Amino acid sequence: xxxxxxxxxxxxxxxxxxxxxxxxxxxxxxxxxxxxxxxxxxxxxxxxxxxxxxxxxxxxxxxxxxxxxxxxxxxxxxxxxxxxxxxxxxxxxxxxxxxxxxxxxxxxxxxxxxxxxxxxxxxxxxxxxxxxxxxxxxxxxxxxxxxxxxxxxxxxxxxxxxxxxxxxxxxxxxxxxxxxxxxxxxxxxxxxxxxxxxxxxxxxxxxxxxxxxxxxxxxxxxxxxxxxxxxxxxxxxxxxxxxxxxxxxxxxxxxxxxxxxxxxxxxxxxxxxxxxxxxxxxxxxxxxxxxxxxxxxxxxxxxxxxxxxxxxxxxxxxxxxxxxxxxxxxxxxxxxxxxxxxxxxxxxxxxxxxxxxxxxxxxxxxxxxxxxxxxxxxxxxxxxxxxxxxxxxxxxxxxxxxxxxxxxxxxxxxxxxxxxxxxxxxxxxxxxxxxxxxxxxxxxxxxxxxxxxxxxxxxxxxxxxxxxxxxxxxxxxxxxxxxxxxxxxxxxxxxxxxxxxxxxxxxxxxxxxxxxxxxxxxxxxxxxxxxxxxxxxxxxxxxxxxxxxxxxxxxxxxxxxxxxxxxxxxxxxxxxxxxxxxxxxxxxxxxxxxxxxxxxxxxxxxxxxxxxxxxxxxxxxxxxxxxxxxxxxxxxxxxxxxxxxxxxxxxxxxxxxxxxxxxxxxxxxxxxxxxxxxxxxxxxxxxxxxxxxxxxxxxxxxxxxxxxxxxxxxxxxxxxxxxxxxxxxxxxxxxxxxxxxxxxxxxxxxx
Length: 751
Description:
The protein is α+β, with helices and mostly antiparallel strands and 751 residues long. The protein contains 26 helices and 31 strands. The strands form six sheets. Strands 1-2-3-4-7-5-6 form a seven-stranded mixed β-sheet. Strands 11-13-8-14-12-15-16 form a seven-stranded mixed β-sheet. The protein has a seven-stranded mixed β-sheet with strand order 26-28-25-29-27-30-31. Helix 8 (150-170) packs parallel to helix 10, helix 10 packs antiparallel against helix 13 (342-351) and helix 19 packs parallel to helix 22 (628-640). It is globular, with a radius of gyration of 26 Å. Residues 239-253 have low confidence and may be disordered.
């Protein structure tokens, strides 16, 4: 029997499955207070998904609001859209704007790796499309359990195939990302997806339903039973550990199923609709599906909407109203269209073979009304669903083990002392899972489709051309070292910001703004909430010092298996502008006889390092010192050095040794260096604010002058050339031997 609004008023005592839908007892009572009665089953479905952790940010928004205190402007001017929209939009000059955002699809990718990852890409692409932009590139920061773990072998190939399969079919280049392995991600892999889009300033669109009498049009794929309640009972739950140490979700709703070919049609159809100027408001359907799109559009617009749910095109005719409202079927959009433009809108959809249906209209009632075959099943204030959900100030406490963790310094561990031990350490390090060649993954992605990719993996950042005549472009990087964040979440978040900022700068770009994806354990654990709060504070303070805004992002909580939380993983994406991509600085030298310099200061900073991880299985101490003034000076030097520098590569994971190895192996041109002081510290310390650069031998003094002007420490290391990596007075490794060790790891593990 249909549970209508009238029935709810007449039957106030009916038992309802609010707990099974992820709601707490006090949340259910609050819904009853808002409505003055019990909710109908359809209303309960809407509130459960929209008040979920994933959609409402109920545990995190008290900490996220500080990002809004940052000046909403980049080094180039005011942001065009920021926090609260589908994605941030920034001005990059010449009348162009860029929109970018990074989001998570972690839990679905554990349950069904291929579809979980594929639909993660599809969802972020639609967020970018909804801003009025053409998507031009994607990236994928990934985290897995140990490379030799059985469950890693289950999830990694499927996740990589899903990211590649969906992105490749859309014709979007994958220009970068990360693949990091750590035991805390076993049973809880992280699949973060980023998309970049380009638009002219005048093409910006926002998500709101305005204009009484305007029609609400649902277009794209039909609605099915996949992903029902995904955000409320999958993305907002911790995985329970099984006896064998693996995990499984406490509840298993269907993971969304993607169709990239429908999404490609949807992209082209939507862009033509934008060009025709016949859209008053638009929203993609992602997490929470129709519940989200209808309530958010109504809440952000004139405050009322009437929807006839039985007009929604279905793949499965047996779906109930509740299931239709909760379904997270992919490749769907909702538009608000003036009555006189509906015919033209539907004609464009028909041209692209995209199904469309008018399912409602904007009203002045201030209510969201949803009818099912003429009977009212939803009558709610839309803001109460979309924007006025619960807000929790969760208990937080510095963990009791934090002091002991920080006291256990990696600087006190045994270290290699002989030339042969240093050589063996280098070969072991380059072959380790986090430092080895990732082309087994990236070769499954099309990095150059569309013909505008300038830089892609394994370069420090991804770079795409925006204008083919002026060569204006953008560079993007994503970074996070969760080991640093575990040791000190405040500093760890700033180090993630600093590395991403630096990676964009090495190509010659000017960093403009960030998006973040904050992946943490259960918010019901005070230690996790302390980590989260510290990371947010660190990011806010870091952005303030660097003079760049947070344009938006995503929070993913409950990333833990049983009692084991993941490493705190605040992934930071930085986007920068490049005035002329043809003059970008490459990440590796290509000529012999060039002079190699280290920019920045190396200190004995080994705690949290890959050396401590690989050689000793150790995590303890305090992370490298954060010096954002030094990062800013280095970035300014790298930008001003465009044309002078023949290469620039940041120093981060694995230290100087990894930087030299990667740069030499990229073009198989060797290098000979002399290290001042302790060779081990010089090679494997992971001090921040550093980069290795090369210049023609005759230009060394120009670089010295430039470094002096910016106050950046400069150390001459040596010269490029030969077929080996040579550390004078210590060891040499032929590049073929180095490359063999570097490239063998992933194919051997995943074959």
